[in-house]
Prior knowledge:
The chain has 320 residues and is α/β, with parallel strands linked by helices. It has a single domain, classed as P-loop containing nucleotide triphosphate hydrolases (Rossmann fold), CATH 3.40.50. The protein contains ten helices and eleven strands. Strand 4 (68-73) and strand 5 (76-77) form a beta hairpin. The longest helix is centred in the middle third of the chain and has 18 residues, at 186-203.
Amino acid sequence: xxxxxxxxNLKKWFLIGKSPLGKKELVKAVDGVSFYIEKKEILGLxxxxxxxxxxxxxxxxxxxxxxxxxxxFNGQDISHLSRKExxxxxxxxxxxxxxxxxxxxxxxxxxxTIAEPMEVHKIGSKKEQEERVIQIMEKVGLFPDQINRFPHxxxxxxxxxxxxxxALATNPEFIVADECVSALDVSIQAQIINLLQNxxxxxxxxxxFVAHDLSVIKHICDRIAVMYLGKIVETAPKxxxxxxxxxxxxxxxxxxxxxxDPKMRGKREILMGDVPSPINPPSGCRFHTRCPLxxxxxxxxxxxxxxxxxxxxxxxxxxx
Length: 320
């Protein structure tokens, strides 16, 4: 398969101030991440809150500029393009935000909201834009007679459908879905997930699906990348990762998935301690402060992502 998005050693650090000795204090939100997404593939990016998932997605889209690293879109390096040079890529790369309430302008009707990306990129006439808006609204499960209504008149699930419609307006190739179901009720989550799957197949979309809910990730994604404290610790096809997790962190995440059958309770891997601060991450493997299998080498040397079959990659000294 052909790669649409490829990220190499991506870093995004935030300056938050200086120590009493004058040393810069940096939050290393994303710290050397590398992965790729094939065309028409859904890659799930999963991890605990604060691990850098959303920052990674926004850096790929250049919503925020990366500190270092390379971002390739359809073979072209976009990591150092100017704002003007990035404009031609913007309509091909869109985002669905996490918050269906805060991501919509309350002063704009949903018709205006969905049409705005087309106006920015000068796509079609006013009449063509309106026809496109109505077409997309019907695709995402909204009614044409709702076009002049405002966000406060819709439920959370409907607002997220508006957000999806806005992301589809320019007919993009790549979409970052940033925890787009985490704020919704479970029944509504299922509807939105099924909608995204249908749209992905119909339009041939490539998705980076950011989430912390592994059951949702398992349902929608083709491959999964597991992130911990700014680093990718494991990547694998969905079934391979769920059936044969190799990294201790991935094993602990999977053991925490609730099983709705008391007779099928598995062994729970309890992680001790808290996630270290991204301002001062541990040396060596960043997971070693919580890992039940930690060895001396884990404290001293940072593991790299490696694989024996070119499918399942893991960053762990204890995995062959």
